[in-house]
Amino acid sequence: MPDVRLASSQGRWVLLTTVLGSSMAMLDSTVVNVALPRIGRDLDADLAALQWTVNAYMLTLAGLILLGGSLGDRYGRRRIFVVGVVWFAAASLLCGLAPGVEVLVAARALQGIGGALLTPGSLALIQASFHPDDRARAVGLWSGFGGVGAAVGPFVGGWLVDGPGWRWVFLLNVPVALVCAPIAVRHVPESGDGTRHGRFDVLGAALGALALALVTYALIEAPQGSATVVVAAVAGVGAGVAFVWVERHRSDPMMPPDIFRSRQFTAVNLVTLCVYAAFGGFFFLAALQLQVVAGYSALGAGAALLPTTALMLLFSARSGALADRIGPRVPLTVGPLLCAGGMLLMLRVGPGAVYVSDVLPALLVLGLGMVTLVAPLTATVLGSVDTARAGLASGINNAAARAAGLVAVAALPLLAGMGEEAYRSASAFDAAFRRAMPICAGVLVVGAVVAFVTVRALPAGCRKPECLRHGSVVSPPLEGQGSRGRLGE
């Protein structure tokens, strides 16, 4: 039984290292958007290169996060966490020193691998280390501090971009890792799952990542209209079909198909795809719109986006409690509709936009929508499967959200008619942004309809979320082993 007490010095060290590790990965999922215009100018990159700067990271993270959790169970959660932290820092250093956009994109892909190793391990280490009497409070502190990090991330990122330069957005991870890794080695107890002896589903993970990569490539490069794009699209669909076939025929698949026999689980993942596709597209374009069109500095754009994360951090726990009383159907219907309204209000943001009257109302409505839906979404995911598979269900849902954001960043500029040099022209980007926001709102409305038609009340006694506060805007909380069941089980 885990026996670390939160009030002990070891307990504080465990909490510190897990917060530092998870914050590294969480921040890089958001702050890079603020740096994109400066990266584009400094590296002479077109819009497709900026899309890949975001998507290379999300691609490897989404494709490998389930495998990362399983590696921690097998070989030791602390060991894999430390490997992930060191890997992430090394890739961040390469990002910061990248001489061109090609190296930057490759380094971002390597960063995603590190993120897939450390992200599942941060919460799992808390759940495996702390005494049961202290674990709920430890998880609450971990998620709260992580939310604060997510809230200040775009602000800090903007300050770095405007000050020492965009490269420091990545280089900042190196000293954080130099603090985090030694603390983990010295103070965090090792833990694992000695009952797991099956094979790793490396083939499944590789096929899933390949399918996402090929489809993403086809969407980003579609304006070129070349035969390569067609081949990539067909091959991506083929890899997706092969992934499904492999998962159906393996004895120990990464993503067991039978988990989707739960109609509620399938339905809430469809809602997740809609919601986080819209979020991914929105936050990619909004940071650019505020800088390219409205004339904000990187710091101004980062600070402008704070309300959404701040609202989630302050009120997500209360939203979860409300959903416990009234059920998830109403929040999962109303939340996406509020988010859709917020994105339509962003149409007011143009040249010379005034923050208080034009930007803030949209972000407040969007933030309220996110508060309304995120906690109930997580609870519904966990409550729609057997308790022993709740950790696996959360991992699948988290990966689905990241994959949805990945595809949205690739597809939305194409659907909005955004040219390769659009971000260099305020008028061209503004016109495309005004076409993109209704698309995002429409996807959210689809998610609301799916929730209203398919989501039902949760059964009594089902697994409840342990992460009550959440600040990430790119994915739902990743629940670990909890009191019963493990990520990847």
Key terms:
489 residues; Growth Hormone, Chain: A; 17 helices; disordered C terminus
Please count the beta strands (DSSP E, at least 2 residues each): 0
Share of β-strand residues: under 5%
The first-level CATH class name of the largest domain: Mainly Alpha
Low-pLDDT segments: 482-489
What structural class do helix, strand and pairing data support?
Answer: mainly alpha
- How does the major sheet shape up? none
What is the percent of helical residues?
A: over 70%
Report on this model:
With 489 residues, the chain is mainly alpha-helical. The chain folds into 2 domains: 390 residues, MFS general substrate transporter like domains (Growth Hormone, Chain: A); 48 residues. 75% of the residues lie in helices and 0% in strands. It contains 17 helices and no strands. The longest helix has 31 residues.
Offer a quick outline of the entry.
The chain is mostly helical and 489 residues long. It contains 17 helices and no strands. It is a multi-pass membrane protein.
Topology:
Blueprint lengths: L8 H20 L2 H13 L3 H29 L1 H21 L3 H29 L2 H31 L4 H5 L1 H15 L14 H20 L5 H23 L13 H31 L4 H7 L1 H21 L2 H17 L9 H29 L6 H26 L10 H29 L35
